[in-house]
């Protein structure tokens, strides 16, 4: 599966956002910041990663449906991939 155009940009943007948020979480922990603030940032990073993952899975499913071939994952494999994000 190849991500192209807007999908690629969107996934990379979300992952870079998560990367920045994780860096922020590390700094907050090192500085001894309030637990609630740390958890809020950690939750935001987690959501950014989840959204990127869901976008990748959705794109993969669309490609598999549009052009099934020899490498098309089975329904069970697709279900496992999707649930791995849950």
| C-alpha geometry | elongated
- The ordered H/E elements are HHH
Q: How much strand content do the residues show?
A: under 5%
Largest sheet: none
Strand segment count: 0
CATH homology group: Metal-sensitive repressor, helix protomer
The first-level CATH class name: Mainly Alpha
The rounded Rg comes to: 17 Å
* Percent in helix: over 70%
Cα distance, first to last residue?
A: 21 Å
- Return the CATH architecture: Up-down Bundle
Flag low-confidence runs.
none
Number of domains: 1
The helix tally amounts to: 3
Average of pLDDT: 83
- Briefly note the CATH topology name: Methane Monooxygenase Hydroxylase, Chain G, domain 1
Can you describe what's shown?
This protein is mainly alpha-helical and 86 residues long. It has a single domain (5-84), classed as Up-down Bundle (Methane Monooxygenase Hydroxylase, Chain G, domain 1). 79% of the residues lie in helices and 0% in strands. The protein has helices at residues 5-30, 35-66, 75-84. The chain is elongated, with a radius of gyration of 17 Å.
List the helices and strands and how they pair.
Layout: H1 5-30, H2 35-66, H3 75-84
Helix pairs in contact: 1-2
